[in-house]
Structure formats: structure tokens, C-alpha cells
Specification:
CATH architecture of the largest domain: 3-Layer(aba) Sandwich
Structural class: alpha/beta
Strand content: 5-15%
Largest sheet: 7 strands, mixed
Number of helices: 15
Number of domains: 2
Radius of gyration: 20 Å
Number of strands: 11
Shape: globular
Distance between the termini: 23 Å
């Protein structure tokens, strides 16, 4: 999996526990799928998972890990990846933009990424095979990047991993069916009908497209107009989610929750986010009795590093290094909701 700010890797056990009493084959929605880590956990539990995200790179990840079936896909993907490994580096727009104008990847690896991506474009692969191959390339590039984990900036000196050769690996797919959509949250919620939904919306002004703009470009392969030191896509300025707006997030959250046709809703949200606990519990209480579980975690990597000015000098202290992830559980069956929340609390 790629490095990802906001990944629920450490919270997956709690989320899985909150869904553990559901039946195999139940339809479950992951409304803001991101890296699809939670969706994968639910797929492995035997649920029919529908993963949604409005970013193309996240949709591609979901097609790889949720839609693709390992049993029918592994052999095909391995054949394609084997054919791509001997691709000769060929620098062009991608290498110039992200390895020379910016320094996210060493030019040797950037030229290799670019050549492989150009070859993928000529193969006319069907989905979800195309997404499996693209995710293999994305993950290979992530293993040799020179960042702290987000693509808002790059390291002054090359990271040690940036000098390692690019290596395509077969993604670890999972058996069973699934589906992936690329829609706004409210539209995806309205189009889904099933047993449960998991919501992990953005919680502040930082959009995931801005944080991972290179993956969006790698998937779209559209040579967009870029700006700034990080060479971000211009649409990072223009295509903002309501969930990244302090003024609009409450209305967007209410609309998405109200559109859901499910019995159980599980929401994870950071206590430093735009929505406070009282607001979230109030919105969810329209669906039944709400139970809230707290889990204590380290803050994001930037907080661990500290506050620096543009010259790299440390100029301030971070106020705190821990925060809380809050998991909200509500079910139309109050007793089942209570038990699901207790199971999640036991894993926190």
C-alpha cells in the first residue's frame, strides 16, 4: 500500500470489530475509500464491499483491491507486469515535472515510471486488470519517492530509498467480488442499498488530491497544467470537496448520512476536524442510539517533525503530539448497535 496520511491502518481492528456481527455476503459501503484499506479488511471478512471515492487515483486503488478477484486476476496481472519490467527508461513530461522541476523521484526512476506508464497506455487493458497494473506502478513509485509521505513537498536531499531501482510487484489481491464507484459522496450514498456503511470523510482544509496529486496524474496521464514548487495539478485549486470547507462540511455530512439506505452506520473522525463530536452525534442520532469509541494515536508526521520556516530552520513548537480518533456506531437495532460499539471499544 502507498504511504497515506489519514490511513486507518491502526483503526482497522476497531472498525472490523464494529462490523463483525454482520453476515457473510452482506453489502457494505466504504463511502470515502482512499487507499481502500478498510474496504479490504471488510472484503476479507466475506462482505460484498462497494468502495467509493471521487478521486481517480483512489478509484483505481479500489478497482484493484476491491473489484478485482485474486482467483481470476493474479495470473493475467503477473503476465502483464512481467512484460513491463524490461521497459527502458524514457524521460519526458513526467520526469521533467516531478524529478527536475521538483524532486519527488530520482530522474532515473522517474524516467522508468514514465516509460512503463506510456506502455500501459498502449495495451488497452480491460478493467479491473488495468487498475491492478496501474496500482503496481503507483506502489513501485511510492517505494522510491523522496517525501515525508505527502506530495505537498519533497526532501532537500534525496531519501536513501530514492536511489533504489524501481521494482514492479504484483499487488496482494483478495478473493471474492466487489465493486468500485467514482462519485461525490452524497450521490454514492444515495445509489447504494445494503446492510452497513463506513464513513471516513476528510476532516480539514487539506484535500487528498493536493496531498497525492502525482498519483492523480499518474492514473489520468493527462499532462495537466501545474503550479508551485510541488508542481501540483491546477485542478487542486478548482475542484474542492465540500468536506474540505469549514463552512460547508456540516451540510455535506448531513446530506450524505441522510441519503444512506442501511441499518448500521460507522463513522471515524479526528477530534481535530471541522466537525465536533456533538455535531456528529446529533446528525447520527436521527438513525438511532449513537455509541462513541475513543482511540488515542500519534499525530501526523508533520507534527512529529515540528514547525520550520522556508529556509528549513525550526521556528516553533508543536502544541501536542497525540490526538484522538473517534469511532461512532449507530444501528437501527439498538441492542446490536450497542454490542457492535462494545466490540470496537475492546479493540481500541
Amino acid at each position: 500500500m502507498i504511504k497515506y496520511l489519514g490511513s486507518k491502518r491502526l483503526l482497522t481492528g476497531c472498525i472490523s470489530a464494529a462490523m463483525a456481527d454482520l453476515s457473510e455476503g452482506d453489502r457494505v459501503l466504504d463511502l470515502f475509500s482512499g487507499t481502500s484499506r478498510v474496504g479490504q479488511a471488510m472484503k476479507k471478512m466475506g462482505f460484498m464491499v462497494s468502495s467509493n471515492d471521487h478521486n481517480e487515483y483512489a478509484h483505481t486503488i479500489a478497482r484493484c483491491y476491491i473489484e478485482a478477484d485474486a482467483h481470476s486476476m493474479n495470473a493475467q496481472a503477473k503476465t502483464v507486469l512481467d512484460s513491463l519490467r524490461d521497459t527502458e527508461p524514457s524521460p519526458g513530461w513526467f520526469t521533467r515535472t516531478y524529478c527536475e522541476e521538483a524532486r519527488f523521484f530520482h530522474p532515473d526512476n522517474g524516467a522508468k515510471v514514465e516509460a512503463i506508464r506510456n506502455r500501459i497506455e498502449t495495451l488497452s487493458l480491460d478493467e479491473p486488470l488495468r487498475s491492478v497494473v496501474l496500482v503496481s506502478l503507483m506502489e513501485a513509485a511510492d517505494r522510491v519517492d523522496s517525501t515525508t509521505g505527502v506530495q505537498m513537498a519533497y526532501l532537500k536531499q534525496w531519501a536513501a530509498r530514492a536511489h533504489k531501482p524501481l521494482e514492479l510487484r504484483l499487488p496482494e489481491l483478495h478473493n471474492g467480488p466487489g465493486e468500485a464507484t467514482c462519485m461525490d459522496a452524497e450521490d454514492a450514498a444515495r445509489s447504494f442499498s445494503g446492510r452497513a456503511a463506513y464513513l471516513d470523510p476528510p476532516y480539514n482544509q487539506h484535500s487528498y488530491r493536493s496531498n497525492y496529486h502525482i498519483w492523480e496524474t499518474l492514473v489520468r496521464w493527462d499532462e495537466p497544467e501545474v503550479y508551485g514548487v510541488a508542481r501540483k495539478r491546477m485542478d487542486c485549486k478548482t475542484e474542492k470537496s465540500d468536506f474540505n470547507s469549514k463552512r460547508r462540511i456540516t451540510e455535506a455530512f448531513i446530506a450524505s448520512v441522510n441519503a444512506l439506505d442501511v441499518q448500521r452506520v460507522v463513522v471515524s473522525f479526528n477530534n481535530e476536524g471541522y466537525l465536533n463530536r456533538e455535531t456528529i452525534e446529533s446528525v447520527l442520532s436521527n438513525r438511532g442510539e449513537v455509541h462513541t469509541v475513543e482511540a488515542d494515536y500519534k499525530r501526523y508526521v508533520g507534527a512529529q517533525i515540528g514547525i520550520h520556516n522556508q529556509s528549513g530552520k525550526k521556528v516553533g513548537k508543536v502544541s501536542h503530539l497525540r490526538n484522538k480518533e473517534l469511532l461512532y456506531v449507530v444501528d437501527t437495532d439498538a441492542d446490536r448497535g450497542r454490542k457492535a460499539a462494545m466490540a470496537a471499544a475492546n479493540m481500541a
